[in-house]
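User: I'm writing a tutorial on reading structure tokens. Could you give me a worked example: one chain, its sequence, then its tokens, then a sentence or two explaining what the tokens reveal?
Assistant: Sure. Here is the example chain.
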Amino acid sequence: MTARMHEVELLELLCKHEVLRLRGYSFAIGPKGGVVIDRWGHVRGMWRYKNDRFSWTPASHTSSVHWSEDAEAAVRYTLVALTVG
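And here are its predicted structure tokens:
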């Protein structure tokens, strides 16, 4: 699968996640790829697929802070990172 296909897979899983949806998160493929996560008009971060894994970059950072091996793990991390605390 191409990076774009992996990112679309992640996008579809995130869009189906009821807890994230109910908390106001929305998801889209960015203009240069990646899955952009937004909440009420504010970007919260982006997932990119590169080198056979997903990397998470919060909006407050310039580089990735977490890596996931597959889309399901990326969804789990997103849920914890954005909704706990």
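What the tokens reveal: The radius of gyration is 12 Å. The chain has a mean pLDDT of 96.
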